[in-house]
TrEMBL record:
Gene encoding the protein: DNAJC3
Organism of origin: Dermatophagoides farinae
W2 domain segment(s): 56-230
InterPro entries: ARM-type_fold (IPR016024), eIF2B_epsilon (IPR051956), W2_domain (IPR003307), W2_eIF2B_epsilon (IPR044123)
Name of the molecule in the record: DnaJ sub C member 3, variant 2
Listed GO CC annotations: eukaryotic translation initiation factor 2B complex
Length: 233
């Protein structure tokens, strides 16, 4: 009888022990599942961050291809239409928006002159003459003209130790005379500038206060007045 009672007690103890083990195993599984969820969540966040970072990488890769295409075009005297086809192909490959295409094409043409061994003034003039059909292909609307002129300004501000306000005005004047940039747009750029995110406002103000920029704007306004007078006559 005593032995039977002892056996019954031992069976109950084993049953409770097994139940404890089962609970412990389930809890461990839940903890592991939570850890996996946390790990997946982190991976998802990292993937999202990477997707934003890659956007800049795509722009950079597109710019490098534009730079190489224009550089090769200048060296080999390739017809502009072929360079435009290459740029358009790169544009679609990297899914670059139109405003960025406008800006990066201009910057590529200008940076090629800056990175050359020759005199910047003569080289940039030569590059602009070659690149004019390419620029005209992209810079047509008022919006694209804005992309163009602010890209030129940003280029000058980024390289102001080598590129002076006179250089900037010569570039803008060339594009004005070739009917790429309109007079009204240039005047608006001067009198009502929009802020450039990578530069403080004082830099833009200093540029517009320079003698060379002031003289050009004065010349532009006087040319407009003479044109108006001629029309009245």
């Amino acid at each position: 009888m005593v032995v039977l009672v002892i056996l019954i007690l031992m069976m109950k103890i084993l049953s409770v022990y097994n139940w404890i083990l089962i609970l412990g195993h389930n809890e461990e599984m839940n903890e592991n599942h939570d850890d996996e969820c946390d790990s997946d969540s982190t991976k998802f966040s990292d993937a999202s961050d990477d997707s934003y970072d890659s956007l800049g990488d795509e722009y950079s890769a597109f710019y490098n291809e534009v730079y190489d295409s224009v550089s090769r075009g200048i060296e080999e005297h390739s017809i502009a239409e072929n360079i435009i086809l290459e740029i358009n192909s790169s544009k679609h490959a990297y899914n670059v928006p139109v405003n960025e295409v406008n800006s990066l094409v201009i910057k590529a043409v200008l940076n090629l002159a800056l990175n050359s061994d020759g005199n910047f003034s003569s080289t940039v003039k030569s590059n602009l003459k070659y690149g004019l059909p390419i620029i005209q292909n992209y810079i047509k609307s008022i919006s694209s003209q804005n992309d163009c002129i602010y890209s030129i300004e940003e280029f000058q501000l980024q390289n102001k130790e080598l590129v002076t306000s006179l250089h900037l005005i010569k570039i803008i004047k060339f594009l004005y005379e070739e009917n790429v940039l309109e007079e009204d747009l240039i005047l608006k750029w001067f009198y009502k500038p929009k802020s450039l995110s990578d530069h403080v406002t004082s830099e833009q103000e200093t540029l517009r206060k320079s003698k060379e920029v002031g003289l050009f704007i004065k010349w532009l306004e006087e040319a407009e007045e003479e044109s108006t007078d001629d029309q009245d006559d």
